[in-house]
Structures are given as structure tokens and as C-alpha cells.
Amino acid sequence: MSILFCIFASRKKAFMIQRILLEGIRNQLFKGKAIVLIGSRQTGKTSLLHCLFANEDDVVWLNGDDPTVQTMVAQINTEQWRMMMGDKKILVIDEAQLIPNIGMRMKLVTDYLKDVQLVASGSSAFELANRLNEPLTGRKWEYKLFPFSYREMVEHHGLITEHSLIDHRLVFGYYPEVVTSPGNEREVLRTLTDSYLYKDILAFGGIKKHDKLMLLLQAIAYQIGSQVSYSELAQTVGIDGKTVETYIDLLEKCYIIFRLPSFSRNLRNELKHSRKIYFYDTGVRNAVISNFSHITQRTDAGALWENFAIAERMKRNAYMNYWCNNYFWRTHQQKEIDYLEECDGQLYAYEFKYNSRKAAKVPGDFASSYPEAQFKEVTPANIDEFLMM
User: Which among 138, 127, 113 has a CA at the least distance from the CA of 60?
Assistant: First the structure.
């Protein structure tokens, strides 16, 4: 399926939004449910809303960043919603997580203003989910927006061009303003990581020790591709293990990192309760540790390649509506497979190699226990097949 883009100017930057996501949202309009768009800050949620509704005349736009809007909407009742909407048929609430009681206020719209389509965005999954899940149970469609993806950029300027930029993407990532600011990637990433990404965590997560949060992220960044121990992280950062787990949960719900659990079905010596942690964007990961060295000069090239490939695969699966369980596999004897997908009962195993001098082989224990599993090595030479098919 071809993916096209909605391209327009915002703050003199070109922002590209997958049309497949736009079409998915459009197909759910006026079907009796709210539409909720979530993702980390600066990924283009507001831009996508403008792509959807900029040319519509019957839209009421509300910005949750506006204190006046926060006060007004927090106490609004059904009749006041009707007065505000008038003859308008679409209600857009941007940064909805900032509005107190937003779940109940949105429920009034979905339950009593049947001819109004409600669309909300939020950059804080944990806060927005807490406020929406109970009031809007069964009343919403939810979509996730990530930083740009390899697949998007291939559709934007072609496979050859984007493939040639893989080394650059490994270092600087895919955040929209990074992609659209060639030559200024370092400055943009520093501003992004210093000013935006952690805003929701600090505001809503009750985190008072910003330095500990940054130390934790740095510790995680140095361990991508490796098993992560919460107790070891706690010792490194100087906080207790429960706090580490809480911080990681908040970072994941703000789409900065994601966890990959271990896969176990048959073998006694399989790790059963372990996990790896990756960043949704390798540029953010490198900004956290202040390392923008070229990939050929790095000692972490293999881990960075693994993070990049898995994160891009997660985006690809989310946008294409491929429902898979995601894992890694390892035994106590350190036999390992980097990444597993379980889709419709079928196992797919992948090993990631940035510099592959010899072909990777499936571990014997895995092959004998899961003979039906398909195995493939993913390198820069065949990444297109892994992310585009």
C-alpha cells in the first residue's frame, strides 16, 4: 500500500504526516465515538489535526494549553457544550490532558451531542489515559503518533535517498524538527530533550528530582540491547527500585522509551521475567548521553542499530495495524535472539547486525523448541524488506 503525505508549513517547517493514519482517523469520523490522538511532544499531533480539519468550516478548536480554556471546560455542562458548538459539527481539543475533569467533560459530548464528532490530542499518555479510560470506556478510538518513520521518509523522497541516510538517522533520529533542520540537529535535539520531552512527566508524575530522572535515562541509554535490572539501575542512580519502576513506567507512557519482555514457553533455562528497554527515537537516546559521533566511530553501533530497527518496526506495525506480541529471547547460558514477533500464532525471530562478517545462526535450543519459527538476520543491506514489506 502506498503511503502519501499531508505536507504543509508550520513555523516555516515542513511537517509530513502519514496519510494512512489520516485515512484511518477519517474512516472513524461521525461513528458515535471520540477520537483520541496520543504521542510524545513535538511529534506533530497538532499538525495532523490541522491536516484533518484546516479546511473545515464547522470546527470548534480548543487549546488545553490556554488557562481560560482549562477553567471553562473543567466545569462545562451539556447545555453549555450545545451553546458553544452552535451549528458546528466537529470539536477539537488539543493538549486535552491539561484540562481538569476532561474525561467527564468529553463523555457529555459523546453521550448527549450525538451529531458532534469529538477529537482530542494529548502528549501525556498516563495522564490522559487516567482521565479518559473510565469515563470513555467503549466511547473512543485511540491512535498513536510517533516521530517520523523510515517508511514515511522513503515515501517522501524515495528509497535510495532515505537508505543512504540510515547512518545519519541512527545518530540524529526522526523527530520532525530534527529532520527538517539539516545542519542544526544537535541544537534541536538538545532543546527537545531539555525543554519538551519531560514536561508532562515532571508536571503530572509527581517527580521532584529532575536530576535523578536524567541519570536514570542516561543509565538506560547505555544499556540498550542489554537486559535491564531495576535494582542495578536503582544503585546506579541512587534511588530505590520501586521509584525506578515508577519512573520507567512514566517514561514509557510518554513515548520516550518502551520495554521488551523476555519470551518463554518451553525451556526451563529460558529467562522468564527479564526485560530490555529501548528508545522510540535514537536521536533522543544519543542526546541523553551527549554523543553524536558518526556511527562508524562508535563502540555502540551494534546496540544503536538494534534499537533503530526495533523502534522502526514498532512504528511500522502500529501504522499498518499489524497486531503482534513483541519479545526478546535468552537463556541462562546467554544464548539469545534480539527480537521476536508472535503474530496469529506464528513466531518470527530476528537478529540485528550492523556489521555482519558472517551470517547469524539461530541458536540450537531455540530451533529445537520452536521449529515452526522463521529466522532472519537484519542488516543495513536488507533493512528495507524488514521495514517496508
Answer: 113
Distance CA 48, CA 365 (A): 47
Pairing mode of beta strands 34-38, 13-18: unpaired
- Burial string for 254-265 (b: 16+ CB within 10 Å, else e) reads bbbbbebebbbe
- pTM, two decimals, is 0.89
Encode pLDDT of 239-281 as tens digits. 998 989 988 988 888 889 999 999 888 666 666 678 999 999 9
Between 67-74 and 102-112, two packed helices, what is the crossing angle to 10 degrees?
Answer: 60
| Mean pLDDT across 163-172 | 98
pLDDT tens string 317-361: 998 889 999 999 988 888 899 999 999 999 999 999 999 777 888
Q: Which amino acid is at 379?
A: T
Closest CA to 228 of 178, 301, 278, 172: 278
Kindly give the interhelix angle for 230-237 and 210-221, rounded to the nearest 10 degrees. 130
Q: E-assigned strands of 79-162?
A: 90-94, 117-122, 140-144
Long-range contacts of 109-112 (CB under 8 A, 24+ apart): 109/34, 109/81, 110/32, 110/33, 110/34, 110/136, 110/139, 110/140, 111/139, 112/78, 112/81
Helix axis angle, 45-53 to 19-26, nearest 10°? 60
Q: Extract the C-alpha cell encoding 356.
A: 555482519
CA dihedral 241, 244, 248, 249 (to 10 degrees): 60
